[in-house]
Specification:
Layout lengths: L1 H52 L6 H28 L4 H25 L5 H29 L11 H27 L4 H5 L4
Helix pairs in contact: 2-3, 2-4, 2-5, 3-4, 4-5
């Protein structure tokens, strides 16, 4: 009887172990079934994060918009400088210098206005504007004034003469075409107006 009881006990343990093993296999299979789905979900989450933070390619339209922003300030400054210089009877060189100074001023002012509206303090906004617009405005002014200086009779044309406005429009157009690739390159490196965009989100 003791032998039979012992054998029965061993059989019972083996049976229990077998059931436990089957349960373990079921659990492993369940985990294996859930694992890939969970892993895929994790990858999906990583992809979503990358989509939010990875910088996208810089489009020409984005670069053109940034250039147009600078061009507006430059045009305002140059026209105002020409008006003031002409009204005061200044020569060509002092008038051009004033126009360039005002072009930088209004170029920075337009950028400052946008950054300050986002709640940024003036000191930070001013630094951002300098970093964003200096190269862009400098290239634009170099091309713009270079065209005017080289165009026969343009420097001596008065505000009431069609030649003045025609040459100004052409010079600004040329400056826009040349400066747009510069802005595209800068934005692609996280500089220029890419810095400004951080404050508009």
């Amino acid at each position: 009887m003791q032998h039979d009881a012992h054998a029965h006990h061993e059989h019972h343990q083996a049976h229990a172990g077998h059931e436990a093993h089957e349960g373990h296999e079921g659990h492993a299979a369940h985990a294996a079934h859930q694992g890939p789905a969970g892993h895929e979900g994790h990858h999906g989450h990583e992809g979503h994060t990358g989509h939010q933070h990875a910088p996208g390619p810089v489009s020409w339209s984005m670069a053109a918009k940034a250039t147009l922003h600078c061009l507006t300030g430059c045009a305002i400054g140059e026209i105002l400088g020409m008006i003031i210089g002409t009204a005061l009877g200044w020569g060509n060189m002092p008038t051009m210098i004033l126009a360039i100074i005002l072009a930088f001023f209004f170029g920075y002012a337009l950028t400052l206005r946008g950054i300050l509206s986002a709640g940024v303090d003036f000191r930070t906004a001013f630094k951002v504007a300098l970093a964003a617009d200096t190269l862009s405005i400098a290239v634009m002014e170099l091309i713009d004034n270079g065209v005017i200086a080289l165009w026969p009779g343009a420097m001596d044309a008065h505000l009431d003469e069609p030649l003045f406005w025609i040459v100004l429009a052409i010079s600004l157009a040329v400056a826009f075409v040349v400066t747009t690739p510069v802005n595209k390159w800068m934005i692609g490196r996280g500089k220029g107006h890419a810095v400004v965009h951080q404050y508009h989100h």
